[in-house]
Amino acid sequence: MSANMSRRTFVGAAGVALAATATGIAASPATAGNTSSTRPSGSAKPTVVLVHGGFADASASWNGVVAQLQRRDYTVIAPANPLRSLPTDAAYLASVLAGINGPVILAGHSYGGAVITNAAAAAPNVKALVYVAAFVPDTGESLGELISTYPGSEIQAALNPVPYPNPDGTTGTDLYLRADKLRHVFAADLPASTTKIMAATQRPFSAQCFADLTQAAAWHTIPSWGLIATEDKAIPPALQRFEYQRTNARKTVSVAASHCAMVSHPDLVTQLIIDADRRTG
Q: Residue 240: inside a domain, yes or no?
């Protein structure tokens, strides 16, 4: 987003990115599919690459999923998402993917879903995309426009915008979550002790990420899986459902969770990733 964009515009565009939790689990009848399929005999397991969303880091987002996948002998990489702009972040992730030998399953949470959507289009080794309470844009769409298509996001009141200098002398805007709002908006079903740490350790998230247009949508050619967090106050569940239906996701699961179900339900996210592996083996 340009420095001249109004506070209301970038705040309204910034409905995304971190934390939260869950209870009940339900597989979508239309897309649940067969979870008993197995990888062909002798084929190698893919590397699983996990991409976090805004305000977060890889450890706070993915530690539970990483541990479960490693116990199942998967190689896992959870790189730092720069959170500077969609083209910058997608190019960085594409470079990570290019350094991996063999097939990859690519999972993205929240804003990370937009990053994997763009990056995987130039990565021939990606065999499946897994979206967790995520943005899934199509070519030419911005996240600011996409989040406005359905009501329900409560992110605007939780944002604290802070100017920062760009290398060319212009001014950008970083977004932070107010400490007194983070738990309600993102992590209402996580312990307060956990969300206090999230608030203290959050990373700056450039508002530019919501103005950038998606250049390529990998889900048109790579099969996808999706998790809907039905209590999400950041990305409306109706938007998540629309996105996954638009991708013709091979499987969609729903969980009564706030924004980041992989924190409270790493087992569910892990099983979704394993299903993607087995059904694309």
A: yes
Please state, in angstroms and rounded to a whole number, the distance separating the CA atoms of residues 31 and 276: 13
Q: Rounded to the nearest 5°, which phi and psi values hold at 11?
A: -65, -40
Question: Is 1 a domain residue?
Answer: no
Quick check: 21 and 187 in contact, CB under 8 A?
A: yes
Is 18 inside a domain boundary?
yes
Decide if 181 is inside a domain: yes
β-strands 75-77, 126-132 pairing: unpaired
Cα(147)–Cα(12) distance, integer angstroms? 9
Domain assignment of residue 135, given as a range: 7-279
Q: How many residues does the chain have?
A: 281
**pLDDT score for 36:** 41
Other C-beta atoms closer than 10 Å to the C-beta of 36 total 7
Fill in the amino acid letter for 1.
M
Q: Structurally, how many domains does the chain consist of?
A: 1
Q: Which CATH number covers residue 15?
A: 3.40.50.1820
Task: Give the pLDDT confidence of 165-212 residue by residue, as tens digits.
Answer: 988 999 999 999 999 999 889 888 889 999 999 999 999 999 999 999
Q: Would you place residue 270 in the very low, low, confident or very high pLDDT band (cuts 50, 70, 90)?
A: very high
How far apart, in whole angstroms, are the C-alpha atoms of residue 104 and residue 190?
30
Instruction: Measure the CA–CA gap between 277 and 202, rounded to whole angstroms.
Output: 31
86 contacts 114 by C-beta, under 8 angstroms: yes
Residues 106 and 128: their CA atoms lie apart, in Å, by: 6
pTM value > 0.70 = yes
